[in-house]
Amino acid sequence: MLNNFFTVNLETKKRINTNVIANYSKLKLSLFFLPLFLLISIVLFLYSKEALSIDKYVQIQKDSFYFLNSKIAQFPHIVYNLTQLGDALVFLSFVTIFIVYAPKIWECLIAASIVSAVFSSVLKDLFLIPRPAAAFDNNSFVIIGKTLPGHSSLPSGHSITIFTVLTVLLFAFMPKKINYKILWYFFIISMGLILVFTRVGVGAHHPLDVIVGAIFGYISGLIGIFISRKYKIGSWVNNKKYYPIFILLFIICSIIVLTRIINENLIIFYFTFISLIVSLIKISYVYIKK
Fold first, then answer.
1. DSSP classification of residue 69
2. From CA 90, how far away is CA 139, in angstroms rounded?
3. What region does 50 belong to: left with phi over 0, alpha with psi -120 to 50, or beta?
4. What is the pLDDT of residues 253-287, one digit of tens each?
5. Chain segment 190-204, per-residue pLDDT in tens
6. Among residues 166, 164, 207, 209, which one has the least CA distance to residue 190?
7. Given a cut of 80, is residue 212 above it in pLDDT?
């Protein structure tokens, strides 16, 4: 039984990766229309409310922020664990197994992650929106975890990360039947929105910060897929001779996560650690048996 766990069925791997590639090949540029429409709608909404300035942007969301923060923060332990998935180290650890079974996913994730990092860095520096802890009285709302008083609220980096990963997975495993497609869309988007709004629950972002972050995460995921599809810059992921790089990275990441377990003892970090160890064992076994 243990040997079966370690063994990677080549036919199974080929079938999964082939299906993922086929799903990605069907995507069209028209998929960018919806997120661009949503971004334009948000800008027009802010314009109609005369809220395109930093102060007005913050004030127009004050009531909704207080409401959502008070409601979501009623479950502090759950919220604080779930919000950790916005950390790239944590979320990506849960999909490391796809390096073995569906390397095409990681080809896209690498490109998408670079795009999302650029979006996050550039836009945060461009807008310089104060976080809730810098804009409001810290005693007037709930803060879970560290207080973040900086001016880097828009967009939410955690939200970008979450939707970048989810978008790549969304289209990787898209069902063929329309009914299942609708359910799959609904499940992924709903899960993503639940995760990103934990950033409001912990007092780290305004509501529009996470919505805009989610949209840019979706765009990042799509761009990553199209880049990988056209330029094949991540094809090396499927080459076993590079597995030692991943093995080393998994070991380093496991040590980092283990340190977080010692310091914070969050259950999400235990699951992250287990995911990394399982992937580490799996990829090491495949590499040794090459």
1. H
2. 30
3. left
4. 999 999 999 999 999 999 999 999 999 999 999 89
5. 999 999 999 999 999
6. 166
7. yes
Cα distances (Å, whole numbers) of residue 183 to 7, 26, 203, 285: 32, 19, 31, 36
Report d(CA 20, CA 169) in Å as an integer.
9
DSSP 19-72: HHHHHHHT--GGGGHHHHHHHHHHHHHHHHTT--SHHHHHHTTHHHHHHHHHHH
Residue 78, CB-side half-sphere exposure with 13 Å CA sphere: 8
- Please tell me the distance from the alpha carbon of residue 165 to that of residue 34, in angstroms, as a whole number: 18
Sign of CA dihedral 172, 213, 141, 44: negative
Q: What are phi and psi of 272, to 5 degrees?
A: -65, -45
Residue 32 corresponds to which tokens in the numbers above? 């960018």
| Residue showing tokens 């009623």 | 74
Rounded Cα distance between 35 and 217, Å, is 10
The predicted model scores a pTM of: 0.94
Closest CA to 238 of 97, 89, 96, 101: 101
Q: What's the rounded Cα separation, in Å, for the pair 101 and 34?
A: 31
Q: How far is CA 260 from CA 19, 238, 242, 257, in A?
A: 36, 30, 28, 5
Cβ(103)–Cβ(237) below 8 Å: yes
Peptide bond into 76 cis (omega under 30): no
Determine contact, residues 32/118, Cβ cutoff 8 Å.
Answer: no
Of 202, 169, 171, nearest in space to 94 by CA = 169
Using alpha carbons, list the distances in angstroms from residue 102 to 13, 15, 186: 7, 9, 23
CB of 245 closer than 8 Å to CB of 65: no
